[in-house]
Amino acid sequence: MTTTQSLSHTVLWTALITPLLEDGGIDFDALSTLAQEQAAAGNGVLILGSTGEALALDMAEQQAVVQHICALELSTPIMVGVGGHNLEAQRQWLAFCNDYPIDAYLLGAPLYAKPGPVGQELWFRALLDASKHPCMLYNVPSRAAVSLDPKVLGKLQDHPNCWALKEASGSIDCFEQYRLAAPQLAIFSGDDALIPYYAQAGAAGLVSVAANVWPEATHRFVQLSLQGQSHNTFLHWREAVAALFHVSNPIPTKCLLHALGRINTPTLRAPLTHSELRDLQPLLRVHDSITSWHSTQV
Predict the structure, then answer these.
(1) For residue 44, what are the β-bridge partners?
(2) What is the CATH number that goes with domain 4-230?
(3) CA-wise closest residue to 210 among 221, 196, 199, 197
(4) Which of 15, 25, 265, 268 is at a distance of 20 to 30 A from 117, taking alpha carbons?
(5) CB pairs under 8 A, 24+ apart, for 292-295?
(6) Which of 105, 155, 166, 198 is catalytic?
(7) Annotation-wise, does 65 bind a ligand?
(8) Residuewise pLDDT in 10s, the chain (298 residues)
(9) Which 3 state secondary structure label does DSSP give 29?
């Protein structure tokens, strides 16, 4: 069974996209390549998060992604996203995943329901109880429409399966409240651009979208941030991250990966579409900037 100690050396988790074929089916060959690139860079792999368009995949497709990634026997930890609004469905998902050699779960707040502190604790505790692996809770008010209450986090930190928090509110004040409420937990930035600031406040690392495109460069950026040496590189990364979130994630990431020949199509599942992004030049410019920056680091 995975322990929190065995995860402590993973400072960067890549929220992996799910590459699709033109007909909308999963491109498993491209998925293998992307996952292996992350492993080679020393990055943990998070599958079936929001960047992976998990909610647009049916249950059989989600199960196939887990089975495929586990069969690769990657030399890096694997985390699986758990999110939706139906608690029993999420318990069933955990029951399926518990039988596979994964290392952790990312537990999202229930979507749309906007529970208060009592409902939040019930939701997360039920999922923690159903898990056989360490869990990273996920605060993402932009998607869940509610913020995780710091007092709830304080109550959950003692659960044996509660390992970490992904903090994606975009607020340093919120990060500091969570640090005070749950000093035992590892807290990861859920925003690529904020890792230099979160690192100063005690972050354990980053859950990244940018690492899909720049696995090695993002890893180096996180290392420098955790060492307090990222100040001279921040402007490069702030511009790059802004370009990757110019329209809804993961549209720009898929479009850039396709333009670079790293995936076969930029296809997404509706309601997302690559047609939202008409001008690739800003993405190509930041790609050149990050590539140039990283060449000075090796």
Answers:
(1) 13
(2) 3.20.20.70
(3) 221
(4) 15
(5) 293/217, 293/233, 293/236, 294/214, 294/216, 294/217, 294/220
(6) 166
(7) no
(8) 566 767 889 999 999 999 999 999 999 999 999 999 999 999 999 999 999 999 999 999 999 999 999 999 999 999 999 988 999 999 999 999 999 999 999 999 998 899 999 999 999 999 999 999 999 999 998 888 889 999 999 999 999 999 999 999 988 999 999 999 999 899 999 999 999 999 999 999 999 999 999 999 999 999 999 998 866 677 779 999 999 999 999 999 999 999 999 999 999 999 999 999 999 999 999 999 999 999 988 6
(9) helix
207 is in an annotated binding site: yes
Q: Coil, strand or helix: which one is 280?
A: coil
Give pTM, 2 decimals.
0.95
- In the chain, where are the structural domains located? 4-230
How many separate helices (H) and strands (E) can be counted in the chain?
13, 8
Beta bridge partners of 186: 164
Tokens of 183: 């000093």
Closest CA to 94 of 109, 107, 110: 107
3-class DSSP assignment, residue 211 = helix
Active-site residue among 138, 155, 178, 254?
Answer: 138
Q: Cα dist. 171→13, 141, 174, 176 in Å? A: 20, 11, 5, 9
| Active site (annotated) includes residue 138 | yes
Q: Is 166 known to be catalytic?
A: yes
